[in-house]
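Comment thread on ticket #2218

A.B. wrote:
> Attaching the input chain for the structure job we discussed in standup.
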Amino acid sequence: MTYPVPYGPPPVLAQRDPMPVEPVAYPQMLRTPRATWGRGVLMIVCFVLSYLLVSTVLQGAAIGFDVYRGATSLDDVLAMRLDLTPALLLSVNLSNVAAIPLSMVLQRAFFGQRGRWLSSVTGRFRWGVLARGALVALPFWAAYLVITLVFAPESVKVPSGTYVALLVIVVLTTPFQAAGEEYGARGLITRGAGSWCASPRLALLVGTVLSGAVFTLAHGAGDPWLIAFYFFFAVVLSLITWRTGGLEVAVLLHAANNLVAFGSLVLLQQDTASVFDRGAGSAGPAVLLPGVILLLSAGALWLWASRAGLQRTYVPEHAAPAALDPASTYVGPWDQAVR
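C.D. wrote:
> Ran it. Output below, let me know if you need it in another format.
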């Protein structure tokens, strides 16, 4: 059913509508007639607590399994001297994968909006956008992998034993792990924060800062270089999500970064215990390289998205025809431009 443009849906139906009643960008997809401060806050808190619970259970089980089979000792566990075993890596990745259904369930529970709308403003995960974006971005990350392997102090070795298992887990689960972090941080948290703001610009700013802060804290870094890198990483992915109208490109960049980082670690067969060392002095200017690669690949994707005319705005069925034009500027009842 459609309604005259000047009037919109009847007030009673509008109050029950889980979708925005005017064109909005990705961060404001939960700015609906149901939106309240309380809903957004509780949804974010529930997500964080649920994620911590799932992570604790899965990673605790993996550590217990490693202690049982003798891969690590109880003393090492109590002293937090953990090595990156296949069981632990798998549990960490699955914890993040669980963020995908968790985010969708919480969005539906608090805002009544189906999980598919978390993927993009079109209500689906746009595989074509992912595939075309990969052609643009992956050459940058391939170059980063080559640079890492060629100029690393250690020489590349043929993985064997435990490292084969680690490499298989990295290849098979890391893309989904990266997707889970994006659905949670750039998806649910950004939208929860965006639901508080009438201004599209303020929604983008608040969503970016809050999701970036949670993302950075979740990585438990104590080194200034790492803290800056994680927050910069989060900000870039938030902006590219807003620019493309969905999570596809953010998932692509996150997966590429993690695959190169973990893949090179396995191929160089360094001390995998260093993976969990994020304290002061654990990093340095070397993090500038992935930061530059991220910026270059995101910049290339930004230009590509502009030329490809990707849909970056959700358009309700009752919206004016001009709102369907991605080049137009829609001014709604809050007197704020969506773009």
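A.B. wrote:
> Thanks. Noting for the ticket: Strands lie at 24-25, 313-314.
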